[in-house]
Amino acid sequence: MRARYGVPLGITAVGAAGLAYAVGIEPRSFRLRRVSVPVLPRGMRDLRVLQVSDIHMVSGQRGKQRWLQSLAGLRPDFVVNTGDNLSDPEGVPELLDALGPLMEFPGVYVFGSNDYYGPKLRNPARYLFEKAQGRHGLNGNAPAVHAVHNPWEPMRDAFDAAGWVGLSNTRGRLKIDGHEIAFTGLDDPHIKRDRYERVAGGPETDADLSVGVVHAPYLRSLDAFTADGYPLILAGHTHGGQLCIPFYGALVTNCDLDTGRVKGLSTHRSGGHTAYLHVSAGCGANRYTPIRFACPPEVTLLTLTSRP
Fold first, then answer.
1. Per-state percent for the chain, helix, strand, coil, to nearest 5
2. Residue that wins the pLDDT comparison between 130 and 273
3. Do strands 209-213 and 179-185 pair parallel, antiparallel, or not at all (unpaired)?
4. Average pLDDT score over the chain
5. Model confidence band, residue 244 (pLDDT cutoffs 50, 70, 90)
6. How far is CA 195 from CA 111, 167, 214, 219, in A?
7. Measuring CA to CA, how many Å separate 294 from each of 53, 243, 283, 303?
8. β strands within the chain, DSSP E
9. What is the per-residue pLDDT for 206?
10. By three-state DSSP, how is residue 232 classified?
11. CA–CA gap between residue 119 and residue 112 (Å, rounded)
12. Residue 65 CA, distance from chain mean position
């Protein structure tokens, strides 16, 4: 009996341990990623940028709240929030409490689909099927019906009141120590709210740096930003693959970006130009799939340095 059932029981035990880790430990193992990007004019001092993405706040997530509050101790020059702040219609007060200390710093933001709509229970295997069929979000799928609408307006109003600049299909600026940082943002391409034609035209020539900001890094948006000459694009949405295979990486990105660039710093080429692309793996997950494996939750502190 021992020889006959020992291996299956061992596999079951390993699987159960892996599931317990993916549900109970890794989603709370918050990390800070540090990245340097050479995009500033020569002679300009380095800038520290905190990118926060895919918080997916659910009411009662006290540990996540405390960790986000603690990030103010990094003293960034400015904050970039790349969306999907919510995974619970009741989570806005706790989200704003968590981000309160960071809202003391200059910042910009775009929204993702989960800021507008509540999460739905779905089979995680659908992400693999959709990838095989070339379908992602509303990009190829039928429009969502009976969706729960999140109360995103109070969140927007609080961000605006703190001085954060909304970038949904528009441009904005921050002045940091006398330097002009220009931003061009898009609403979420995952649900086809992006309107690049409203912001086309490339970087602003009187700014010291121009940055493209978008929630979901769909290729059409990355191509447009890069072809227009933006040196840096910041995005989120992918969760870094969320469930990854150790020593292999992500299986899906939940958009048409390749898995080799599912998180971290890479480059993108289009129209004879090259841009740096940073995709945040995010620090949360959909409330119905609150698991991570080989892909810890994170935020990124980007140090922008002078171009060589």
1. 30, 25, 45
2. 273
3. parallel
4. 92
5. very high
6. 14, 12, 11, 14
7. 18, 7, 13, 25
8. 31-40, 47-52, 78-81, 107-109, 165-166, 170-176, 179-185, 209-213, 232-235, 244-245, 249-250, 264-270, 273-279, 298-306
9. 97
10. strand
11. 12
12. 17
